[in-house]
TrEMBL record, chain A:
It comes from the Bacteria. Residues 69-128 form the Transport-associated OB type domain. Coiled coil: none annotated. This is Transporter. InterPro entries: Mo/tungstate-bd_C_term_dom, Transp-assoc_OB_typ1. It comes from Chlorobium limicola.
Automatic annotation (TrEMBL), chain B:
It comes from Chlorobium limicola. One of its GO terms (molecular function) is ABC-type ferric iron transporter activity. GO terms for cellular component: membrane. Gene3D superfamilies: P-loop containing nucleotide triphosphate hydrolases (3.40.50.300). It comes from the Bacteria. Residues 2-233 form the ABC transporter domain. Keywords: ATP-binding, Cell membrane, Ion transport, Iron, Iron transport, Membrane, Nucleotide-binding, Transport. It holds the Pfam family ABC_tran. CDD domains: ABC_Carb_Solutes_like. Transmembrane segments: none annotated. This is GTPase.
Amino acid sequence: MNCFSAIITGIETDESGSLFLLELDASGLQLSMLLFDLKPAFTEGSSVNLLFKETGMAIARNLTGEISFSNQFSATVTAIRSGNILADITLASPAGECTVIVTIRSVQRMKLDIGDSVTVLLHASQISLETPRMITEN
Amino acid sequence: MIRITVEKKLSGAEGPFTLSIDLQMKPQSILTLYGKSGTGKTTLLRMLAGLVKPDSGRIEVNGEIWFDSSNGVCLPPQKRRVGMVFQDYALFPTMTVRQNLLFAQEKKEPRKVEEMLELTGLLALRDRYPGTLSGGQQQRVALARAILRAPDILLLDEPLSALDQKTRGQLQDEILKVHHRFGLSTLLVSHDKQEVFKLSDSVAVIKNGCITRTGTPHDVFLDRITSNKFSFVSTILSIRKVDCIYLAVIGAGNELVEVVLCERDAANLKPGDEVLVASKAFNPIVMKLKEATEPEDEIPPI
C-alpha cells in the first residue's frame, strides 16, 4: 500500500451531498480524489494520509495527448524487482516514495530502467483517505 | 440511560487491584466490554445483576436506582430486570426447552413463551431436554429465556465463545435481531474483535479494572479514521509469495478471501495479525446471480 501525506485544499460535493471530490496538496503535488460520505474529521486544511494500491495505478513514458486519469505526476524509477510475469517498480516522487506493479511485458515494451523519468497515473477513485496515524497506548 | 459508577477491590492473578468503572450506556444500544480475562468484566456484569455488591458507587437504570452506596440502596437480584446469558448455557437439565422458558417468567404467560419459541426458531425443539441439543441450540434457548423477562438490560458474558465459527455467526445475527426487535439495552463481554465490530454500537476497553478507551469499534481499534466504504476486521491466515507479489489468505466470516500484498506490506504483516481489509465503493464488481435456489451447503439454523 502506498501512502502520501497531504493536506485537503478543496472540497466539492454533488447536489445530494453524498459524493465528494477532494483537492489535495501532497508536498506540492496537486491531486484529487473521490469519496462518499465525508466524515467530519476531514475538512479543508486537514492533514491526511492518501492510500493507494500498487496494482491500481499506471505509469507512462513520453505521454502525449489527453487522458482521463485525474492524477498525473512525474517520478523517477529507483528500483525494479522482476518476477516472471510481474515487476515491482519503486518510484521517487516529490510526495515521497511509491511502488507500482506492472507486467514484465510492459517493462520491456517501455524499455524501463533505473533512473528513467515516468508519469504516474492514478484514478481519483482509487485513493483512500485516513487521518494521520496517532500514537496511542493501546 | 444506564449510568454505572462503581468501585470494588478485587484480587486478580497478579495481585489485588481496584475495579473502578464509570460508564454510560444509551438505551437500545449494544455496548461491548473488551479486555483480557481477569480485568473485572464479568464482575461488572454481576454487579449489575445484583450478584456482587460494589464497595461504593451508584447504578442507575432508566431513571431507577439499583444501587447507591451513599444512601444504602441495593436492590436484590430479583428486583432488577436483567437478562443474563453466559458461555455455559446454564439451562435446567430436567426441564424441556419450553419449561425452561416458562420458569423464567415471573407472570406465567404460555402464549408469550410460544411466540418467543417461534421467533427464535425453537418451536420444533420445545419438548426436547437441553442435554439433547447442540451448543448453539442451547445458547439460543438461553438467549430466548433471557429476553422473555423483558429485561431493562441484557447481559451477555462471552455467550458465543464456546461455539464454532458458523454457529457463532448465526447466533450473532440472532442477537442483533432480537436486540432490535425488542429494543433492548445490551451489555456484551467479548474478546473477539470481529464480534465487537459486528455487534457493537460502542465499545469500552477495560484494562486492570479501569476503562481506558471508549468509542465506536472503528474509533477504538483503528485509532484513525478511514474513508473506505467496504471494510471488515479479520485475521491473516497465511501469506505466500507469488511471482514478485504476495497473496494473503484472510478469513471473512465463514469465507476465505485472497488479497494481493506488495513487498512492503508483506514485510509488516504475518499470519495471525489482525487487520482491517478495506476497499473503496468504486472497486467491487457486482453481478446478478442466476435464479435464486436453495444454496447447497446452507445448513438450516436448527
